[in-house]
Amino acid sequence: MKQNKLRSITEDQKMPSSNQIKFHAPPIEILLSGTSPQPKFTTEELRTAKEIAFREGSDSANSSIERQMLEQRTDLLHLQSKTFHAVTQSQASLLEQIHALLPELLSESLKRILATTVIDRDAVLRIAHDLLNELTPSREQVEVQLSTHDLDLILGHEESFRERHPQILFRADPELSPGDCTIKSRFGLVDGRISTKIQTAVNFLK
To answer: Which class for 197: exposed (0-12), middle (13-18), buried (19 or more C-beta within 10 A)?
Structure first.
């Protein structure tokens, strides 16, 4: 029994506990049993690795930015194309609406302007002269029809027309309004009524 106690004391002295481990110098590395030592790098190797990682990160970031910019540019061009297409369609629709309304607007505008225009003797003479200029001068009979109001204005001035049309004749037509004028000849009827002139202008715009 005494020998067993001595053996136990001897073994305890040979195997000190972990709390009793002492080092003569600070340990450089501590490894667990069964593990491999970690690789060691020099300062130059670490600096080189850092530079490589920085370049790779920078290249990756630049590539990502370029890709995003390209995608944004593509989206912008697509949006621009859609906008131009929408504007073109809107403009075409607006032009169609204006084109549809323009004849009516022109007709109403001309009627309002002519309604406030004073028809005097000079205006009647000019209207008759312009309409007669559409005929070739001849000695054939030509009949000029005016409103009663306009015929009264040019009484005594018929001779100015006889140089080109010696057989000219002026008559009053109660159906004509001031400013209207029609001419009958062997070639037919020349319609110089204001309503006809307005309709001709409106048809031109349709």
So the answer is: middle
